[in-house]
Amino acid sequence: MNTKEYILHQFQTYPQLELQDLMKFLYQSSFGCEHLVSDFSKVKSNIEQELQNTKDPYDSIEELDGDYVRLHLNYGLNVNTLSTLFILSSQQEKHGIKQLEDKIQILLELISNHTLPFSFKESNEILLKWKEEGYPAIHHSNTFNQLYHPAYRLIHKKYVPFLELFKYIDNEHPSMISIDGRCASGKTTLSTLLKQIYDCNVFKMDDFFLQQYQRTKERFESPGENVDHERFETEILIPLSKHEAVKFRKFNCSTMSIEPSILIPYKPFNIIEGSYSMHSSLQKYYDFSVFLTINKDEQIERLKKRNPKMLNNFIQRWILLEEAYFNTFSIQDKCNIQINTSKA
Asked: Least CB-packed of 16, 77, 270, 331 within 10 Å?
């Protein structure tokens, strides 16, 4: 949708809203959160209090005209998760004023041609005064509060594809999940985000590349065998399944050798991240599995930005090995949830 369509959709969703509410909508679309926030305990306390008193009937995600959404408090996320996402979404938008002023012009056009039922003269005066004051943050009107009982927090759109996963984790409390998927689809980014939100361990398949003696022609010709899943099972998954601390050795690609072992204390929630984490010998250990995918063009662009010198190696070798594994074992279909991380 374009700005005009977003404004009209807002009016159709809340037909009794006032100009002030559209101003707030445009402000949030341009700036996101009203100010930078970092005090987790205060954010959490405010959300808890609001949840106790809310009459908001919505359990949805409401798109704004920009990089943010309104995530209604009744969506089903744990307060800790929602608080963390809200804080992570708090940032200073560099071009917020330019965006806002462009959107205001479209709002005025809709008022001037009587598409919206507001006085053009009064609206123009209010918007000019708002500009003179430096576009301070604005509240919903009393009418909006009384009729629609808004209760939401703004979060960045980049977190939206993962909300159903967060909801599952918050409500089902899994002990171990797998994140598999195509290279450059965001597996490491997602596992890092999960570690920011939850008290969990993250174990990476990339730490278990094949040792030199394992790199045989026969093994590479077998789909899914170009990772040391045997050692991963022994050193990581079996101890975790017994609720024990993990003592494992990373494979160092620079030296092509195994590093000294490190000890990771056991935690009730563990993330297994990386291609081949859904190898048939490993699937039995997981409570839940995620498959991340991405369109081909964007995959190549991300790989080019990540390491241009390795791009051809990925295209001619590693992507082909991955796809053979995905297709041979129907990995995408065996995962509980599929998430496309390509930009819309």
From this structure: 16
d(CA 27, CA 33): 9
Q: Cα–Cα distance between 145 and 130 in angstroms, integer? A: 21
CB-based burial, 177-215: b 16+ in 10 Å, e otherwise: bbbbbbbbbbbeebbebbeebbebbbbbbebbbbeeeee
Are 191 and 275 in contact by the 8 Å Cβ rule? The answer is no
Give the Cα separation of 211 and 257 in Å (integer). Answer: 7
> Phi-psi bin for 201: left (phi > 0), alpha (psi -120 to 50), beta?
beta
Instruction: Name the token pair of 33.
Output: 């959160």
Domain 173-340 class in CATH: alpha beta
pLDDT digits (tens, 9 = 90+) for 1-55: 999 999 999 999 999 999 999 999 999 999 988 666 878 999 999 999 999 888 7
Domain boundaries, the chain: 3-160, 173-340
Distances (CA, A) of 27 to 23, 39, 66, 140, 315: 6, 23, 10, 11, 43
Residue count of the chain, please give it. Answer: 344
The count of other CB atoms within 10 Å of the CB of residue 72 is 19
Average pLDDT over residues 90-112: 89
pLDDT, tens digit (0-9, with 9 covering 90-100), for 174-183: 999 999 999 9
CA dist., res. 281 & res. 233, Å (int): 8
Asked if residue 209 has pLDDT above 70, the reply is: yes
Between residues 322 and 53, which one has the greater pLDDT? 322
